[in-house]
Amino acid sequence: MSTEERRLIMKSKILFALCISFSLIFNGCSMPTVYLAPSGQQIANQHQILGIVPPSITIKKGRKKNPKELLKQQVKIGEEFQEEIYEYLLKRKSRGQMVIDVQNIDSTNIILSKNQINLSETTTDVLCELLNVDAVIYSEFVVPKPQSFFTSLLSIMIFDSYSPDTEINMSLSIKDCDEKTLIWKYDDEESKGIIFSSQKSIILSLLRKATREMPYFKDN
What letter would DSSP give residue 29? Predict the structure, then answer.
């Protein structure tokens, strides 16, 4: 194969990678699944304050890590995502789109830490009593191991294939503190490609859609 032919093949692969990334910008969204309990809206209307517990984080792929290193990364991502949820709800509230109060996540986390709470082993009624809230937002995220732009692009050029490295799966749920039951659940995933999107931009896009479906949302 001549040098010129190699050059043409390389250019075509780069164009292929760019085209896929552009395509994912417009087509990287799935249809969300929304559940509202039969009496969910009526129950939500009685709520005055909402607590947001740290998310459960699953890192989807990547080389095997030391368990301590993996846990540290999961905790870091969880703190970032908890803050994004909190700030987005406050944004909705400041726009008059929600009237419910949201407990400051610093206060939430201090209470959880002081009581040595393991969320996977703690019931909703215990959390509600500790946090003194009317409802609790739980969340789960499945995220990929971040890759650099050049690593992702090189993978595309070598293997002629593409796997989105910014796809995030999100599940939000609200549990009522009186009934101790699920009143609302939202599942969605989104990916916008490797070049023009950050993980934060995808989270904000997911939250924009999810918060509009919450029983607290009021369209102005």
Answer: B
Backbone phi and psi for residue 167, each to the nearest 5 degrees, phi listed first: -75, 130
Instruction: Could you list the beta-strand ranges (E) of 2-154.
Output: 33-36, 49-52, 56-59, 101-102, 135-143
Question: What's the sign of the alpha-carbon dihedral 25, 199, 53, 72?
Answer: positive
Extract the tokens encoding 131.
Answer: 């946090």
Q: Phi and psi (nearest 5°) for 151?
A: -65, -45
Please tell me the distance from the alpha carbon of residue 136 to that of residue 103, in angstroms, as a whole number: 10
The whole model's pTM is what? 0.78
Identify any residues that bridge with 142 across adjacent strands, giving them in sequence order. 58, 169
Residue 55 corresponds to which tokens in the numbers above? 């998310």
Q: Delimit the domains of the chain by residue range.
A: 33-147+163-213
Q: How is residue 186 annotated by DSSP?
A: E
Ranges of H-type helices in 95-213: 105-114, 124-131, 149-159, 199-213
Q: Do the Cβ atoms of 63 and 146 come closer than 8 Å?
A: no
Structure tokens at 88: 């987005």
pLDDT at 69: 86
Mean pLDDT value across residues 134-158: 71
Per-residue pLDDT at 160: 46
Q: Is 80 a residue whose pLDDT tops 70?
A: yes
CATH topology of domain 33-147+163-213: Rossmann fold (3.40.50)
More confident residue, 55 or 166: 55
User: Smallest Cα–Cα separation from 61: which of 145, 146, 134?
Assistant: 145
